[in-house]
Amino acid sequence: MQSLEAELETARQLSIDELADAIESIGFECTRCGACCTGEADDDHTATVFPDEVRDLEASDTDGADDWRDIARPMPYGLSETDDGDLEGETFEWALQTDSCGDCVFYEETDGVGGCTAHDDRPLICQTYPFSVALAGTSQPMGKAVDSVSLPARDADDEDGIVRAHECEGLGREISREDAEELAGALKERAVRELEEAIAVRDNYAPATPAPGEVVVHDSEGSKRVDGTPLEK
Asked: Which of 10, 115, 145, 233 has its CA 20 to 30 A from that of 168?
């Protein structure tokens, strides 16, 4: 496996045209079904959000997004549950906040049609769903891929450098070249950003000892409390 730095260089060299070709070959049109914004059964919606994306949402005019905790919550993976049902421990990165139903707090539905109240400022992972690029250090959101396309000069059996499509009822629909290129640009940006974040998290990580009932989040900027403020050393 290549180092994160090598994978980052690969991400920076990704071709927008080749990514757009792959997206076009799979096909996609958002049907506004809301499946990618809502929770399932006992699983809350989980979408990674970078620290600067949280601040962008804080600075936007989105209703109710006045505080870090209104926008982001600690990524739940690796945390344990207390007897009172609260989470505690250390985790890495942030997830978009969810409501009491486990849906993204920015999701709204009218007459069965879904929408995002923060659409113009939505995180890269939301801009690019249902696609991802398979590189070590990048995320594979919403479960396993249901389709994939190898980029040119890549071995079809090589998991790196493959455009993956995740479960979505909009897959297989015709997409314009303009829309495919716009999505491809965001997909490349996301791959680069995820690797930059992963490297920064690794380099800035310092073990913490959370108090009982406390959560510490390690992101690219260091260790933080659940309200996004730096953890005092």
From this structure: 10
Give CA–CA dist 166/131, Å, rounded.
6
pTM, entire model: 0.90
Q: Taking residues 137-157, report their average pLDDT.
A: 74
Q: If you search the block for the tokens 């919606």, which residue do you land on?
A: 45
Instruction: Evaluate whether 73 touches 97 at the Cβ level (below 8 Å).
Output: yes
Rounded Cα gap, residues 56 and 51, in angstroms: 9
Identity (one letter) of the amino acid at 218? Answer: H
**Section 133-156 average pLDDT:** 78
The identity of residue 98, as a single letter, is T
> What span, in angstroms and rounded, lies between the C-alpha atoms of 173 and 31?
10
Q: d(Cα 193, Cα 138) in Å, to the nearest integer?
A: 9
Between 145 and 224, name the one with better pLDDT: 224
